[in-house]
Amino acid sequence: MSETVPEAERTVEFRRVPLGEIETARSRHMWTRSAVHVAEDGDLVVTGTWDGTVTARDVDSLETRWSVDHPDHAVGIASLEAAADDSADTIIVAGRGETGTIAAYDAGTGDQRWRYDTADDVGEAVKDTVFYLPYVVALETGTDADGNGRLYAAARRYERDGETRRWHSTVYAFDADGTVQWTYETDASPIAIDIDADGERLAVGYNRCMGEHDTGLVVLGTESGDLEWTWDPGTDGDRRVGDVSVDGESIAVSSHGDKRGYLLGPGGAERWHVDLAVETEIDGETLYAYPNHAYANDGRVAFVTGNTYAVESRETESRHPNEHRVAAFDADGDLVWDDEVRGFVHGLAADGERLVAPCAQNFRVRDPDTHAVRWFGLKSGADGLEHLDGIATAAAVDGGTVTAIEEPVEYHDEGETRGEYALRVGSLE
What we know:
This protein is mainly beta. The chain has one helix at 119-122; strands at 14-18, 35-39, 44-48, 53-58, 64-69, 73-80, 90-96, 101-106, 112-117, 135-143, 149-161, 164-175, 180-186, 188-195, 201-209, 217-221, 227-231, 241-247, 250-255, 260-264, 270-275, 280-282, 285-297, 300-310, 325-329, 335-340, 349-351, 354-359, 372-377, 381-387, 391-398, 401-407, 409-410, 417-418, 422-427.
């Protein structure tokens, strides 16, 4: 592990804004229920909550600029920069719910500019549970060949009939006015998308491949949506990719298939791979952890691993030595630094060379000291943290502003509620 600065010397002051009510999380981590995003060059923070409320606040005062009701649970947020003839940026909100709605809101007023229901493509839920709802899992913004704003999104829906499990998914390219330029449909489950800096290639990671689509990574041309190349870890089973991140001509991939991290070149040529949380024998059990997140920038790559599981059973008293770990590598695949994140990271936020990890509970240890927002320099390692009473489940960073969502948690064997549903905002400058 890398040498870290004492935690007391690395904290900064965070401000808090209550977000209302939400069902208290339990010992195991819950699904994505909240979103946060920093827009307008760090001047605006936008939150999305499980009841569908989307609220934009001034970063300095935290006063509400506007608030709207999204048609679904608001679980993802991005922004499109204003064109020359627009007065404000566009806030894009991804939904999980009956309609799987992607909606665009004026960043200045909250007025809805357009709406698209992905359920029209992936289908409606066949069962009234959260896991069956149409779900917009990822948003990414860029520009088209003419320099106009372009939105990319991935939506999916799951269903099960007896022993038969199916996924229905669509990847979209939208113009800034909501016009669909192209779609890419499969029977696999997308989990992440990322676009290159030139806006020419879109990488799509597929986590579960149970049908005809049998590859973990596809790379699409952004103008046409045509398939350019594919890559797969080549492992047995339906688990494939956990995350993708594009850096120039390279793509970093975290593999759920073999629990390794990869750096790929053009056409999917493997430049290197590293063991992250591969199957390891401990006390008579074979343990592993999924590499859930990848981030590549300026020749460095970081991977973050999640919870420990056992090959024979999901229950185990032991822990994989590399669970809940962040590790950064150089362009040759050599380890630069690594550190603990100590709990489950729902989603990794990044801005340039800074990483922000919202850490939830470590459900096997059940230690509230793991509840925190931690940030790292991609080249230097641990740089700071903010402890929370509840669990951190979403984060965003832009320049010197870091934001996170805190959710209340009650460990199943304690009966004590820790924390509250709140927005946390701090300055790293």
